[in-house]
Amino acid sequence: MSIFGAVDFMEHEQVVFVNEPSVGLKAIVAIHNTSRGPAFGGCRMHPYASEEEAVRDVLRLSRGMTYKAAITRLPYGGGKSVIIGDPARDKTPELLRAMGRAVATLQGRYIMADDVGTTVRDMEVIRTVTPYAAGLPDASGEPCPATAYGVFQGLLATAAHRFGRSDLEGMSVAVQGLGSVGFRLCRYLHAAGAALTVSDVREDRMAEAAARFGARTVAASEILFAEADVLSPNALGAVFDDATIPRLRCKAVCGAANNQLADEGHGLALHRRGILYAPDFVVSAGGLIDVAHEGPGYDPATVLADCERIRGIALDIFQRAERENQPTSRTALRMAEENFTVGAARRAA
Questions:
Q1: Is residue 108 part of a domain?
Q2: Is 80 exceeded by the pLDDT of residue 344?
Q3: Is residue 152 domain-shared with residue 121, that is, in the same domain?
Q4: Residue 281 reports pLDDT greater than 80
Q5: 92 and 172 assigned to the same domain
Q6: What are the DSSP calls for 83-134, one per residue?
Q7: What's the confidence (pLDDT) of residue 345?
Q8: Positions marked active-site
Q9: Is 50 exceeded by the pLDDT of residue 347?
Q10: Is 325 found in the same domain as 205?
């Protein structure tokens, strides 16, 4: 396969392939842009069907991190890493340490953190061999709920712009994915009075959401097409494409899943259907804001207060897109691009 010719290779600075057969490690690190600072992005572990699928994912995810840091004006660039494997079966301390040693060879150009298939506890293992792993657990061992709270702020902005509302009382929200982010988001939404419809591949997780939040549960194959004011994708990406967009029965989309649009043209398709799209790299930026606060004096309450600016950023995007009659996805990209330089590292060299 061609890397330089890949459709998702867009001004990436560096792509590193990691192979350590003794511990079963096959991984890829992608650094998209470092004009604002070291590339930051989570380490995802997933049983990809092919190496091509893994390459596409890491290229798209790393680019998204550049835009996430830029739109929030944080001192980071965009990077990401993926480990090819089943986290339930293949993840071991030896594999994690081997991944940490590989990241250490980049000498701080890339800082990793937890992501789908990895945890803050895994980052503690990795930090035994490299300092370039972020992510602090709370007293219960869970990460700070910054990502979920940031999405909640995005939902408040969505309610204000699309529905002219200052609250979420009685609004219907369909939540796809009840992992750490999705479940915590449900907690915020329930407290705000929203009516929830939820789905997850794990039956026990859905049962818990029904019991704790009074949520209606539907099959994973049905959640995207549930009738709701807002659809909130919080699982894997590329859920909006030519097949799914015509079947949507929501008025707005706001969720934490990365790269929700199968390609950028699908932002226009949502726009033409009159569905307000809260760009995922904006509303999911809480995790990156959390990392920016790590260090002496770290305070989760301060992190969450800082995440509230996501609401204002989202509103700015919505209003500018409306003035210019542009898809919010396109407007958000242009606004982020005003805050970083493409190819800066290569030109400086």
A1: yes
A2: no
A3: no
A4: yes
A5: no
A6: EES-HHHH--HHHHHHHHHHHHTTTTSEEEEE-TT--HHHHHHHTTT-S-B-
A7: 47
A8: 80
A9: no
A10: yes
Single-letter residue type at 200? D
Whether residue 114 sits in one domain with residue 161:
no
| 189 appears as a binding residue in the annotation | no
Q: Do both 19 and 92 map to the same domain?
A: yes
Question: Confidence class of residue 135 from pLDDT cuts 50, 70 and 90?
Answer: confident
Q: Is 172 annotated as a binding residue?
A: no
Query: How many domains, in total, are found in the chain?
Result: 2
Cα–Cα distances in angstroms (integers) from residue 26 to residues 9, 23, 50, 83, in the given order:
20, 9, 12, 6
Distance set, CA 305 to CA 17, 72, 149, 336 (Å): 38, 14, 9, 22
Residues 186 and 149: beta-carbon distance below 8 Å: no
**Of residues 330, 311, 305, 310, the one with CA closest to residue 320:** 330
The answer, yes or no, to whether residue 346 has pLDDT greater than 50, is: no
Was 141 annotated as part of a binding site? no
H or E element, residue 173: strand 172-176
Rounded CA Rg of the chain: 19
Same domain, 98 and 238: no
Give domain status of residue 164, yes or no.
yes
pTM: 0.91
Which pLDDT does position 139 carry in this prediction? 55
Query: Residue 254's closest CA among 180, 170, 148, 333?
Result: 148
Mean pLDDT of 172-182: 96
- Residue pLDDT, tens place only, 184-203: 999 999 999 999 999 999 99
Q: Is 262 in the same domain as 212? A: yes
Give the pLDDT mean for 247-260.
Answer: 97
Is 140 one of the annotated binding-site residues?
Answer: no
Q: Which residue has the tokens 């190496």?
A: 51
Measured CA to CA, the distance from residue 187 to residue 197 in angstroms comes to 13
On whether both 181 and 95 belong to a single domain, the answer is no
- Domain of 99 in residue numbering reads as 14-66+75-126
